[in-house]
Amino acid sequence: MNKQNAAPYFGRRGLIFVLSSPSGAGKTTISRELLRLDENLVMSVSTTTRPMRAGETEGADYNFVDEAHFERMTEDGAFLEHAQVFGYHYGTPRAPVEAALQAGTDVLFDIDWQGTQQLATDEKMGADLVSVFILPPSTKELESRLNSRARDPEEVVRERMAKASGEMSHFPEYTYIIVNDDIDQSVDRVQAILDAERLRMSRQVGLHEFVQGLRGVD
Amino acid sequence: MNKQNAAPYFGRRGLIFVLSSPSGAGKTTISRELLRLDENLVMSVSTTTRPMRAGETEGADYNFVDEAHFERMTEDGAFLEHAQVFGYHYGTPRAPVEAALQAGTDVLFDIDWQGTQQLATDEKMGADLVSVFILPPSTKELESRLNSRARDPEEVVRERMAKASGEMSHFPEYTYIIVNDDIDQSVDRVQAILDAERLRMSRQVGLHEFVQGLRGVD
Predict the structure, then answer these.
(1) What is the mean pLDDT of residues B145-164?
(2) Which of B214, B217, B218 is the mutation pick for testing A, counting most A CBs within 10 A?
(3) Does B29 reach chain A within 8 Å, measured CB to CB?
(4) Is residue B150 within 8 angstroms of chain A, CB to CB?
(5) pLDDT by residue (tens digit) across B59-103?
(6) For residue range A88-104, what is the model confidence (pLDDT) as tens digits?
(7) What is the percentage of chain B residues whose pLDDT exceeds 70?
(8) Distance CA A183, CA A10 (A)
(9) Among A34, A184, A211, which would you mutate to test the B interface (most chain B Cβ atoms within 10 Å of its Cβ)?
(10) Which residue has the higher pLDDT, A8 or A3?
C-alpha cells in the first residue's frame, strides 16, 4: 500500500494511534516496524521526571524535566495523559500532538490502559483516537518472553505476569484486538487498521466541497 | 495479508460489506478483484422479478421469481433490503446472509444508498454493516467513463450524470470514502478496510474466554 494515504484531492486530519499490550506481547517490535514502514506516522515523545539513561537523547526518547516543571505542566493542563510509574511521572504534552494532527500527520502512542482511558475521554482528542490491543498467543509464550528478557528471580517474573494480567483485563476498552503469534502478520494487520482508519469519511477534510464539485453544484 | 484473517484461537462473526458508488466509478471492477483475492468473502445473491438475461445463471447472478412470489417474501419480512428499479423488484434475502455471518463468512453487497439505508437501520444486522462509498476522481473522468460504456445519445448520458449526482449526495451516510483514481490502489484500500474491520474487538467471538485463559482465570 502506498505511504501517503491521503488522497491528493483534499486534506485529512491526523489520528492518534494507540498500541497497548502487556509487556512481552511484542508491541515494541511492532511499533518500530510500523514507524520504519509508514512515512506519515511519528512517535509521540513523552515528558518525564525519570533521570536520563545512558544512550537516551533529550527530545527524541523523552523530554526530561524536574518535578516542579512537571507539576506546573500538569496544573496548566499541558498533558493529554499522564501517569506515575515507580515514583516517576510520565506525560504526553498536548501541543505537539495537536500540531501534528492538524498537519495531517498520525501520531503513535505506546501507552497503557490508563493513558488510553485518559485519551478516550479527552473532549478535544477523543474523536481522533484509534486504539489497538495486542495479545500474546498463549500464557506459555507470554511467560517465556517475560523470562527471556532477563534472568530475573521467579518472584519478579510472577510480578510481571500479574501486571500483564491486570493490563489484559482492559482489552474490551480497545477498538481493535490483535493476537501476535507472527510478527510480520501482526505488522500487516496493524498497518491495515491504520490505512483503513485514514479512509474514514469523518477524517477526510474537504470531502463535501470535493463532492459538490463532482456533482457540478456550486 | 493472509486470507484467513480470523485468528485460530477463537471465532468471528462475519460482516456485511457494502460497496456503493455512482455507475462509472469503478465499483464493479473493484468488487470482482476483491472476490478473487479474498477467500473469506462471498457475493450476496439478490432475488429479482426482472427476466433472466442471456448468460445469466439462476442462483448465481440472481434468484429469479415472479411478482407474486416477491410480494409474499416482502410480506414475510424475508428481505434485508429491497427496491424497485425501472419497474422490476430487487431484494436481498435475509436467511442466507444470516447463515453466512454466523459461519464467520463476510458478504459483499453491491447496492445503492437506498439499500444501504435499509441495512443500516436493520435492528438485527445494523451492527454487522461496514459501508464504503467509491467516488470518481473528477467529473471529467466520470463523464468519460459513462460515455465509454455505450455510445448513447447525449440525453441518456445527462440522465446518468443526474443519477450519479443523486447517488453521490449520500456519501456522508457511509463510514469509509475512497476516491478511485487508481484501480490497484483502490483494491488495496478496500482490502485494508475489510482486514481492519475483521479485527474489531466487537466482531471477535470468544475473546473474553481467550483472555481469561491467558490471565490464568477460570
Answers:
(1) 78
(2) B214
(3) no
(4) no
(5) 988 999 999 999 999 999 999 999 988 899 999 999 999 999 999
(6) 999 999 999 999 999 99
(7) 93
(8) 34
(9) A211
(10) A8
- The one-letter amino acid at A87: G
ipTM score assigned to the predicted complex: 0.88
Which single residue is written with the C-alpha cell 483502490? B186
Phi then psi for B8, rounded to 5 degrees?
-75, -10
Q: Considering only CB atoms, which chain A residues are within 8 Å of B9?
A: 137, 179
Angle in degrees, 0-180, between the axes of helices A207-215 and B154-168, rounded to the nearest 10: 160
- Which A positions 183-202 lie with beta carbon below 8 A of chain B? 185, 188-189, 191-193, 195-197, 199-201
Residue closest to A102 by CA, chosen among A92, A110, A94:
A94
DSSP state of A61: T
Q: Is the pLDDT of residue B168 over 90?
A: yes
Q: Which three cell numbers stand for residue A30?
A: 511492532
Burial A41-75 (b: 16+ CB within 10 A, else e): bbebbbbbbeeeeeeeeeeeebbbbeeeebeebee
CA atoms within 13 A on the CB side of A131: 25
Domains and CATH numbers, chain B: 12-44+105-215 (3.40.50.300)
- Three-class SS of residue B90? strand
Dihedral sign (CA A65, A68, A70, A76)? negative
Cα–Cα distance measured from residue B208 to residue B218, given in angstroms and rounded to the nearest whole number = 11
pLDDT digit string, tens, across residues A147-176: 765 567 788 878 888 889 999 999 999 999
| Cβ(A201)–Cβ(B170) below 8 Å | no
Flag whether residue A176 sits within 8 Å of chain B, measured between CB atoms: yes
